[in-house]
Amino acid sequence: MSSPFPVVRGRLRSPAASDNAPRSIPGSRSCIEMMFADLHLHTNFSDGTYAPEELAGRASETKLAAVALTDHDTVEGCARMAAACARVGLEFIPATELTAEVDGNELHLLGYFVDTENPRLLEEMGRFQRVRQNRIREMVTRLNQLDIPLHVDAVFAVANCRSPGRPHVARALVMGGFCSNLDEAFERFLKKSRPAWVPKFKMSALEAIALIHQADGLAVMAHPGLNRADEIIPGLVGAGLDGLECFHTKHTATVGEHYVRLAKEFGLLLTGGSDCHGLSTGKPLIGTVKLPYEYVERLKAAHACRHSNAAAPNTALPTAL
Ligand code: AMP
Ligand code: ZN
Ligand code: FE
Ligand code: FE
Fold first, then answer.
1. H, E, C per residue of the chain
2. Is the pTM of this model over 0.90?
């Protein structure tokens, strides 16, 4: 099934003149009039702070030509984001970011062009969302045991979405006066192995890739430079991984170049994005990673190719899911 969202061809624009000067990305053209994309963005449908309309407005101000919405374990924001992008002449790619696991490593998989009405995807996401909500309850219980009288309803009120996460607990801790800022909340309580940290259920990466594929999406490993576990990549490629997010706010230029090399070696697509969570980390990151539009074209071509090849081996789900 094709995407239900209008695809508006991005306008050719001049590069941003202001603070978000394009990073030097290998393979980009030095043409003055270039188009750029940011393919990793979050809204308040997960742990970002911007509503879709505000995010689309900011993307337009940043002179981006195309954006993808990659909220954690949900595609609920995609309809509003698509409409908002259409209004400002931005190309929109529906997507999501799934948390998965392989060989004990947590990794994030971006699913681009997923059919946002795919029943299996929605069913599994509903399950992930319930796990997230129960995890919030467990984290609050642990905080209460530490004599932090935070009420779980305060966290759910801050989150106001079906896909809550640790940043919402951190914000509620700050709003309740229990921590002075988000960093302190993570450092004292929420980081891995801190007293209120609760492990999260994770599906296997192989299942996540298959889930994305059966929803007509392309599976891309997010920010591989944060994993520092390149040894897992060949296995993911064997399971049908389509791409690597080579360009990410937390990747240095050297790390980005490393993953460009790996992507080329494995014949994978290259993507990039800022991982903007709005104001949750202080400064909005949207547009700070500028992916040359040619990579969006390649992504679209790969997706179109997947359509025309219904017999592709990656479309079947393993029975264990
Ligand atoms: P969760 O999915 O609930 O485990 O939360 C993960 C999110 O928390 C990530 O997307 C980050 O945005 C945020 N996060 C993780 N570690 C930190 C940290 N040390 N400080 C601030 N935010 C963090
Ligand atoms: Zn996040
Ligand atoms: Fe991530
Ligand atoms: Fe993200």
1. CCCCCCCCCCCCCCCCCCCCCCCCCCCCCCCCCCCEEEEEECCCCCCCCCCHHHHHHHHHHCCCCEEEECCECCCCCHHHHHHHHHHHCCEEEEEEEEEEEECCEEEEEEEECCCCCCHHHHHHHHHHHHHHHHHHHHHHHHHHHCCCCCCHHHHHHHHCCCCCCHHHHHHHHHHCCCCCCHHHHHHHHHCCCCCCCCCCCCEEHHHHHHHHHHCCCEEEECCHHHHCCHHHHHHHHHCCCCEEEEEECCCCHHHHHHHHHHHHHHCCEEEEECCECCCCCCCCCCCCCCEEHHHHHHHHHHHHHHHHCCCCHHHCCCCCC
2. no
